[in-house]
Amino acid sequence: MAGFNLIHWDQKYTVHVDAIDQQHQKLFDIINDLIGRYEENEKKCYDIIEQLVDFLAEHFRVERRLMLEINYPAFAAHMQQHDNFMNKMEEFIKACRSGENITAEMLAFLENWIFTHTTNVDTKYGEYLLKIRPKGK
Ligand SMILES: [Fe+2]
Ligand SMILES: [Fe+2]
User: Fold this and answer.
1) Could you say which of 3.40.50.720, 3.40.630.30, 3.30.470.30, 1.20.120.50 is the CATH number of the domain covering 17-131?
2) Helices (H), ranges, 1-136
3) pTM of the model
């Protein structure tokens, strides 16, 4: 199977809130770390998946607060995406707890969801934010 490509954050993915951009960069770092471990055959996933889920839970809370604060029109649909993703993560956590290794399928899903959501969905509230607060922040 072909290897995974690492993901890189770029200024064009900004959501115009520095703290959230930093979280997105950290999220990409965690995914890249996971890919590195996977490819070095260090496939035990428990710690890093737990770390990822804790970090994401906090990240989703921060986004939720922001979207509520700015009365973001697509709030409900965005929350639904976070919830669906967390449900899927639950399955991975269960597998990890029972000692299963990281699988290519798990990693592909994580990488794809996080990259796509961050660069296509989160950026939409960034654009909205910019529209209502032209200077950002
Ligand atoms: Fe995000
Ligand atoms: Fe989001």
Assistant:
1) 1.20.120.50
2) 18-39, 46-69, 75-97, 104-116, 123-132
3) 0.91
Instruction: Give the pLDDT confidence of 98-124 residue by residue, as tens digits.
Output: 888 878 888 999 999 999 999 999 999
* Separation of CA 60 and ligand 2 centre (Å): 6
Ligand sitting nearest the alpha carbon of 78: 2
Distance CA 64, CA 18 (A): 16
Which pLDDT band, with edges at 50, 70 and 90, does 131 fall under?
very high
16 Cα to the center of ligand 1, angstroms: 12
d(Cα 53, Cα 50) in Å, to the nearest integer? 5
User: How much distance in Å is there from the Cα of 16 to the middle of ligand 2?
Assistant: 14
Least distant ligand from the CA of 82 = 2
CA distance 33 to 30: 5
